[in-house]
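for the writeup, i need someone to sanity check this before i put it in the appendix. the sequnce is what the collaborator sent (i think, or maybe the updated version? ugh). structure was predicted straight from it, no edits. if anything looks off just tell me and ill rerun, i have time this weekend
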Amino acid sequence: MHCTYAYVSSPLRERSSGSDALVVCSALKRLYRLILLYGSKALASSPAPDRDILPPTCPDVCFLFLHGDYDLLYQRLVARKGHYMKADLLRSQFDVLEPPSDEENVLPLDIRRSIADMAMEVEKHFITLKSSRMP
C-alpha cells in the first residue's frame, strides 16, 4: 500500500481543481483503489450498519486494468533488464490481486494487444467519459 499513499494527494488535488490527471500504480486491492478515490476516508469506512459505505467509483475517475496470463507476464519480466521488479515477485502480485469489478468504472485492457491499440482504446474511452460529463 506504500505506493498508494504516495499517489493519493495528486489525484485528489487534481479532481478538486477540475484538472485531468493520470496516476500510475498497481492498486492491486480494492481498498487501494478506494484510497485513490477518497484518501483517508477510505480507511475510516467500514461496512458497519451505522456507517456510510463509500461508492466503489467516482464518475470522473476511470481505472485501467491491464490484465494478462501469468506465463506471458513472467516471460516479459524475465526479458526486462535492470528493473526493480524481479520475475520471482510476480506470483505474490497475482496472489493478492483483487481484480476490479465493473462497478469500479474500469476499462480492462488485455496485454496481448499492441500498445498502440490499447492507447487508442484508452483515448476513445476518455473522450467518451469527458463528453458524457459536459452539460
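The chain has a mean pLDDT of 80. The CA atoms of residues 3 and 26 lie 8 Å apart.
thx in advance!!
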